Amino acid sequence: MGGGGGARVALQRMDAQDGSVLRARKARQERVGGGSQEDLSDVASERLVDGGGACGYDEREQEGCCDDATPKSPGRAHDLWRKVKKQYELVEYHVLPEYLRDNEYILRHYRSDWPLKETLLSIFTIHNETLNIWTHLIGFLLFLALTIYTMREVPKETVLPERLASMVHVPNRGDLHQLHVELVTCFPALANVPSFLQEHLPQIVAKCIPDSPTISPNSTQQCFMQTMKDQLGKELNMMVAGATRVPFLVFMVGAMFCLLSSSFCHLLSCHSSGLTYWLWRLDYAGIAVMIATSFFPPVYYVFLCQPIWRHFYLTAISLIGVLTVTISMVPVFQSAKYRPMRAVAFAAMGMSGIIPGAHKIIFFHHEPVCVQTLWYEIGMGMFYLIGVVIYVTRIPERWKPGFFDIAGHSHQLFHILVIAGAYTHYRAGLIYMNWRDVHGCIPGGI
């Protein structure tokens, strides 16, 4: 009898627990919207995921997971993120809408049709575009810092003596006295000039200081040396100010535009097909702008004294850039089918730099700066070329689909190589700019 009574008490306790479970389930059903069959399935699934059953043996169950009271929230931000994560799950490739299907070797962790607010917040979460966003965003911040540093940098202290050493010898007072002696020897009539004029002749001539070794032999200007003095003033001004930074700044702005537009594209492209349509075109425009502006420092500084060639090359690359952007705007080239064609078009645009590069080597090979910058330009070309090959072949994710979904897939490697190539070009641009700080544009020289 005692054993039977104990059994009845145990059964009553189990019935009470079952009643509590049923009441908790009923309350949850009412909270999720009325208790439809679909909602009941969701509740059941969520129950299984959260606790593994009705008050099974688990530490969370022992702490009161089956109580009617809702556990306290650890924080408002955490609740918001749990809500976003629950409502906007990452999905797999096979359920993506057509406009988001670009790489079939990346299988999971896609964002699809997310609201704008959640899309923006996803910059701080993990998905298959996280590193695509941050690689170029960090690259943008790097180039912004380099731009500020370079624009604030004045010519080095060694520039002025080097620049003076590169100039033609300027006559000193002893040279002017010797010139006076030679004039008297050649023109004996000068001996009859009053002595006070003879004494002041060197000072009079000193007012006309030569500047350039090259003066037209047919010049009929009123004062041969006055013309040289005027030119010297211009040369000294350039020594103080240094070579213009505008071509260098054009390249840096182009690089930053490319990196920032790419970062925004990867962040926001999951929002809607309409927005994605324009974002990808902005991305293509950024690539074309970066390639075109990368021509400005080498072409401008190398052909500083040959304005015809300088204007020709800069105009040509600008037109090619506009044409490339225009072609990229055609909707048919947006699809993944034309990925290789897009890559070839941008690669061909970059390879067009071989022409002014060859021109530089053939005509200015005697300048040390030509060899120094050549190695940087070869390195830049290799970074870009390897990046394009990886982008087109989709290596390494094609070797092991799904393994590189979060980190290590081809587009992330392409981004890193683009930054490496741009930084290499930045280093070459510094050499060109510092070289012109020293030498300027001397007629008859490079």
Automatic annotation (TrEMBL):
Zn(2+) binds at H266, H411, H415. The keyword Zinc applies. It comes from the Eukaryota. Residues 19-45 are annotated as: Disordered. It is found in: Membrane. It is a multi-pass membrane protein. The chain crosses the membrane at residues 131-151, 248-270, 282-300, 312-332, 344-362, 374-393. This is Uncharacterized protein.
